[in-house]
Every structure is written in structure tokens, then in C-alpha cells.
Amino acid sequence: MTAATEVDPSALAGLLLDGYRGTIDDEGEGEPEAVAAIEHYLATLVPACSIVIEEDGSPVALCFVVVVGGRHYIDPVVTSPSRKQQGLGTAALGHSLRLLQRDRVDEVGAVITDGNVASERLFGRLGFRRVGPWG
Predict the structure, then answer these.
(1) CA–CA distance, 69 with 66 (Å, rounded to integer)
(2) Phi-psi region of 104 (alpha: psi -120 to 50; beta: other; left: phi over 0)
(3) At the fourth CATH level, which superfamily is domain 2-125?
(4) What is the DSSP string of 3-29?
(5) Is 0.85 surpassed by the pTM of this model?
(6) Under a CB-based contact definition with an 8 Å cutoff, are residues 60 and 8 in contact?
(7) Is 125 exposed, middle or buried (0-12, 13-18, 19+ CB in 10 A)?
(8) CB count, 10 Å around CB of 3?
(9) Low-confidence ranges of the chain (pLDDT < 70)
(10) Cis before residue 47, ω within 30 degrees of 0?
């Protein structure tokens, strides 16, 4: 596990694009939008709890933690399409949750697009429960 701030932003943008492509979260973004999204995340995330899993120097999964309105949120969790269903999303999210617990954060939210069944299952397995829409 590597701190998100220690990974090349363009590689993170590539993972974000690949991870969203063809999913419910795919809004047709290109590289410029992915780079801008990563730059925004890197400027606002909680560095001590946001991690990346790398293989051979390339990111294959990530879990970012942000604070909105004083509350910690997981947003996003992304896994490379070639590595889906191998437990990397669970590992990244679990590690971030342990870091949050270490830092005595006792409430964590998640941002999940309605209909993203894979994310709903992932978060459900780790004890999250749906409380309502974002907003």
C-alpha cells in the first residue's frame, strides 16, 4: 500500500479512466477531465488515510478519503478492470478504514452512484448501510 500523494497523478488519472470506462459512473470523460479530477482529489483528500495499491510500479486500485462538511467520506474506490473481483477494492477500502479507525474517526460515509451494485456490495460487506442520497 502506498500513500496516494506518493503516486504519479497521471497514472492515477489513467486508473480512474480505466476503472470507470463502461460502468454506471462513465460519463464519457477523457484524459483532461480525469487529470483535473485527480488534481482536485489530491488537493482535498486526507493523505494519511488515502491509499493506492501498486503492482510493478503501476496503480491497480485506490481508495481516497475526503472530508465534506466535517464528515469523512470514501470517494472513490477504483480497481483496474484487469484486476476486478480479486479483492483489491476490499483491501484498499479495508486499509483506509483501519487508518481512519487508528485516527479515531468514528463515522465514515461513502459516495456510491445509485445502481452501482458492485460498490453497494463492497461497502455492505464491510458494514456500511444505506442512509440516503448524497446532499
Answers:
(1) 10
(2) left
(3) Gcn5-related N-acetyltransferase (GNAT) (3.40.630.30)
(4) EGGGS-HHHHHHHHHHHHTTSTT----
(5) yes
(6) no
(7) exposed
(8) 13
(9) 133-135
(10) no
